[in-house]
Amino acid sequence: MANTKLSAPGGNPSDVERIKRESNYLRGTLAASMLEPISAGISDDDNRLMKFHGSYLQDDRDLRNERQKQKLEPAYQFMLRVRMPGGVAQPGQWLVMDELAQKYGNGTLKLTTRQTFQMHGILKWNMKKTIQSIHQSLLDTIAACGDVNRNVMCNPNPYQSDIHAEVYEWSKRLSNDLLPRTRAYHELWLDEEMVASTPEQDAYEPMYGPLYLPRKFKIGIAVPPSNDIDVFSQDLGFIAIVEDGKLAGFNVAIGGGMGMSHGDKETYPQVAKVIGYCKPDQIYDVAEKIITIQRDYGNRSQRKNARFKYTVDRLGLDNVKAELESRLGWSLETAKPYHFNDNGDRYGWVQGVGDKWHFTMFIQGGRIADYDGFQLMTGLREIAKVHTGDFRLTANQNLIVADVTPQKKEEITELLGRYGLIDVQQYSGLRRSSMACVALPTCGLAMAEAERYLPVLIDKIEGILDENGLRNEEITIRMTGCPNGCARHALSEIGFIGKAPGKYNMYLGAAFDGSRLSKMYRENIGEEEILRELGTLLPRYAKERESGEHFGDFVIRAGVIAATTDGTNFHD
Ligand code: SRM
Ligand code: SF4
Q: Which of 100, 306, 385, 439 maximizes the CB count within 10 A of its CB?
């Protein structure tokens, strides 16, 4: 199988490789750890394996210092991420998530940047019950995290629902067929009886093998003209090509990713490159072979350089394409033309094909909760009780109440109005184009606030927008609490990455359609300086922009920042 011209980097395997190897296909000592009664936590090795089951052990960082003073162990709790390809949830599933969040979680739900639900704050003793209830609702958390293929994204664009329906089926199939085959999840959480493991069981994880992938792997399918799933940020992106109103096939793009480390130029965000075109029924083979290339040639020594984007950049795009075609036994066709308008969501009611209606609503930071004077969670629960269509979670942490019949539209509109969910126009174009990762208090890697702070910062930027007639201007703005890029900061026109409490690196110059990365404009600045910079740049944009020119393009044309033409010159 392996190509003699290509090779994986040398070096000792990272410790995570040992954990996977010794885990007996993702079992480890998790069963015992979860029953151990003294600590609310689990061992580091088991926590690594937990990811493959869709969960991370975290602690409430707001309580960390206080608990340390009291000589208590950290306030351990688990985050649980659901696998839900294409972000489609039935109303019954919505109600289950809502109930579990109240019963076992912290009373909120997070709609993630990869179109799924996360629950936070679940105690160890409640994990099994929670996963079992998710399973009963016909969802699961398998491979929602870990060194495997993750939740497959697809465009929920209600304007083209016939195409969406077809693309959604492909995303579901990819997600299901690329799952690990181990029964560890079923044994640990669903009480399936354990089958004795034998050496021949390598055959039982035929695609991944016993070591799984060197790192996480992400697939997304976009339906132009919307690039809401940020297809260029995916390890493997498919761009649907529609001909005569029918899905003809997909352009294939490889090697995207957002993560990097501060001050380490060997790590960088990268955009995926289009390498060709395939027919719909070839999509699975392409995905499988790309995954095996990453399995065989990815970096298992340095996790910071282990994503497929680094494999592609190290081996060369043409060599990876040649290897793919050799494994496929056939060649990709030449890529077809396509055009993206934007990477955001369009809000309000739209009528899709047929007589169905879809309502897209902005969810700030993707956080579903009841706030003082704004009963978002209650309102959505009431809608879920009467809704006969489905919910679609968007890749921008927003929500579509989809497939609403004309008969139901009035009732749903009334509920949207009653709970204050309808008037998205009250928000500025900037806020409607914003995204923030979870960050504090649950994310162990956060260096600064994101979800809790971006809305406050936007309140202040809105003053500048209003003074300059830019209130309705759609400018994408994203904030992450660290450089891992969970809110795809490097593909927003204004981006912030947390450096330290209250301090951010500021990035400018990404394309509005998600096709060009940003570049660092200012390092380690606080709110005052952020507002001073935007207080200069936004008025200039209002006065000097050309017709239809987006902010990300303007700052490049005006010489404010150089364009990043490839991830490899992101830091230049
Ligand atoms: Fe992420 C790790 C949250 C989308 C790149 N991400 C994490 C962890 C699990 C922190 C950890 O490892 O301890 C965060 C949990 C925080 C918490 O308290 O919930 C976390 N990532 C999220 C979510 C929930 C952000 C959100 O607010 O929506 C998103 C869940 C997606 C999902 O449903 O599967 C989320 N993460 C992303 C994305 C965006 C995407 O995939 O479209 C990226 C950038 C794209 C990419 O992967 O290149 C992303 N997350 C990372 C990385 C950096 C990976 C890298 O290549 O260096 C990490 C850290 C790691 O893997 O070591 C990370
Ligand atoms: Fe946590 Fe960093 Fe991801 Fe934000 S970007 S959720 S801080 S890992």
A: 439
pLDDT at 303 over 80: yes
How far is ligand 1, taken at its centre, from the CA of residue 62, in Å? 20
pLDDT at 201 over 80: no
Distance from Cα 200 to the centre of ligand 2, integer Å: 39
pLDDT tens figures, 495-530: 999 999 999 999 999 999 999 999 999 999 999 999
Residue 473: pLDDT above 60?
A: yes
From residue 434, how far is each of 163, 178, 417, 566 by CA, in Å?
27, 31, 23, 24
Instruction: Tell me whether residue 557 is one of the annotated catalytic residues.
Output: no
Residue 139 class from Cβ within 10 Å (0-12 exposed, 13-18 middle, 19+ buried)?
A: buried
Cα(449)–Cα(458) distance, integer angstroms = 14
| Residue tagged 């009334």 (tokens) | 414
Return the ligand number nearest the Cα of 114.
Answer: 1
CB of 430 within 6 A of ligand 2: the answer is no
Alpha-carbon gap, residue 474 to 434, rounded angstroms: 10
**pTM for the model:** 0.97
Helices and strands: H and E segment counts in the chain: 17, 22
Compute, in angstroms, the gap from residue 110 CA to the centroid of ligand 1. 13
Q: Is 397 in the pocket of ligand 2 (CB under 6 A)?
A: no
**Which residue reads 């940047």 in tokens?**
113
Q: Which ligand is nearest to the Cα of residue 481, counting in written order?
A: 2
Per the listing, tokens 């096939």 go with 249
Q: Note whether 533 and 521 are within 8 A (CB).
A: yes
Going 464 to 466 to 472 to 473, the CA torsion angle's sign is negative
